[in-house]
Amino acid sequence: MDLGLRGKVGLVTGGSRGIGRATALQLAAEGCAVGICGRTAETLEGTVAELRALGVPAHGIVADVTGTGEVERFVDESAEALGGVDVLVANVGGSSGETLLEASMDDWQRTFDLNLFHAVRAIRAAVPHIAGRGGGSVVNVASISGWKPAPRAQYGAAKAGEIFLAGALAWELGAQRVRVNTLSPGSTLFPGGGWEGRQTDDPEGFAAFEQREFPWGRLGTAEEIANVIVFLLSPRANWINGANIPVDGAQGRPSIF
Fold first, then answer.
1. What's the CA gap between 189 and 125, in Å, rounded?
2. How far apart are CA 224 and CA 21, in angstroms?
3. SS3 track for the chain
4. Using CA atoms, how far apart are residues 65 and 5, in angstroms rounded to an integer?
5. How far apart are CA 43 and CA 178, in angstroms?
6. Does domain 9-245 have CATH number 3.40.50.720?
7. Out of 16, 26, 176, 250, which could bridge 131 as a Cys pair, Cβ 3.0 to 4.6 Å?
8. What are the residue ranges spanned by the domains of the chain?
9. Residue 188 known to be catalytic
């Protein structure tokens, strides 16, 4: 199926590894020019090279999305380098601190900066570019933790904010023809990710965890998540707006291993 993305420009925050990298590569495979940001120059450069090898323009910017003006710089410089913006993936996420009584308010602030506030800044920066090209699409990458309560409330609360943000902005940005949706992954295994570290540290315990928590006996992959993100960005999903799409293989709840 041709998703109708050829010739478009897509931006992905946190696009050098994991779900972000898989999304960037699939956008490139669909014929999109792609801009990505990440914190590590070497990893970023490697992914940019992979994107260009697929025959599309690609641009990478080293940026910490929690830094003042960094998200805006990424969006604006990428738009200038690639000729605009049509679709955006607010992919960066993470958590700081442990339980309520153990985590500091700085942990809460950093978690919201990484998740909800980075998405707000990215969308604010991208919408003028997207609207100027006749409209487009945004996907926030949240988590099933955003509506299935689990320990580390700061993470779930930040992800719940991303889900609500998409629903509200779908209304606010309708006149600009900018669709906004959320994709909520379950636990996802990819090279260099936290779940891979747990698998390496305790292979037997991890195998038992997979059989216990997942109907198919395994975690999802970054590519499986990216498949749905890219579809949601595309004109094929034109009447999906303000939605939260879980992609968790029927995991159904955040898992602690």
1. 31
2. 12
3. CCCCCCCCEEEECCCCCHHHHHHHHHHHHCCCEEEEEECCHHHHHHHHHHHHHCCCCEEEEECCCCCCCHHHHHHHHHHHHHCCCCEEEECCCCCCCCCCCCCCHHHHHHHHHHHHHHHHHHHHHHHHHHHHCCCEEEEEECCHHHCCCCCCHHHHHHHHHHHHHHHHHHHHCHHHCEEEEEEEECCEECCCCHHHHHHHHCHHHHHHHHHHHCCCCCCEEHHHHHHHHHHHHCHHHCCCCCCEEEECCCCCCCCCC
4. 26
5. 31
6. yes
7. 176
8. 9-245
9. no
Least confident interval from 18-22, 129-133, 205-209, 239-243? 205-209
Q: Can you give the pTM of this predicted structure?
A: 0.94
Write down the pLDDT at residue 256: 62
Q: Which two tokens stand for residue 18?
A: 């994991």
Q: Which of 108, 112, 117, 155 is catalytic?
A: 155
Tokens 């943000």 sit at which residue?
165
Distance (Å, rounded) from C-alpha 181 to C-alpha 48? 26
For residue 149, pLDDT over 90 is answered with no
Banded model confidence at residue 210, pLDDT cuts 50, 70, 90: confident
The span from the first CA to the last CA of the chain, in angstroms, equals 38
Lowest mean pLDDT among 4-8, 11-15, 19-23, 195-199: 195-199
For residue 129, what are the contacts with CB-CB under 8 A and spacing of at least 6? 75, 79, 84, 85
pLDDT over 70, % of the chain: 98
The single-letter code of the amino acid at 76 is D
Which of the four pLDDT bands, split at 50, 70 and 90, describes residue 255? low
**Whether pLDDT at 251 is above 90:** no
